[in-house]
Amino acid sequence: MRMRHTAALLIITTALVPACRVTDHSERDPKAITTEVLDDPASGYAAGDTSDLPHMAFDSMALNFGRIAQGAQVERTFRFTNDGGSTLIITDVRSTCGCTVGKDWPKEPVAPGQGGTITVRFDSEGRGGHIDKAVTVTANTRPPTQVLRLVGEVVAPPGAAVVE
Predict the structure, then answer these.
(1) DSSP label at 164?
(2) Cβ-proximal residues to 97 (8 Å cutoff; 6+ apart), any chain
(3) Which domains are delineated in the chain?
(4) What tens digit of pLDDT does each residue of 19-28 get?
(5) Taking Cα atoms as reference points, which of 91, 74, 86 lies closest to residue 50?
(6) Cα dihedral 126, 127, 133, 135 in deg (nearest 10)
(7) Which pTM was predicted?
(8) How far apart are CA 133 and CA 103, in angstroms?
């Protein structure tokens, strides 16, 4: 009985295998749209005239707050000029960490030739050692973001808990 069952299974499997179609995709319709026929032209990013765009020129891309005691809060101000050809609009100032925040920046458009400041606050509570915090400024510039850095050293008392 077991032999008949195995033989029947073998016959059924042998009959079904040719019905399964294994393809190498060479049997596709030649008129079908595939990724090979798509024309993806350059975006024009590099070829565009940027002279009419706003541009933020910072006095410094990194500010050092020096050595501070753990728990202290420091603020530093980044100064910039819109040296582009049109009105600058800053849409966001953000850090990757909650200990560093963009506190104040121009909410109104900044005309060409005019300037402004971006104030950033760092809270050293629970921090220790060398600090290098990135603050991303998003505006209607190309590229749309610039990264400012706030660096310094936090001196923690011996045995204090430190967040990495």
Answers:
(1) -
(2) 133
(3) 56-155 (2.60.40.10)
(4) 555 554 556 6
(5) 86
(6) 20
(7) 0.68
(8) 15
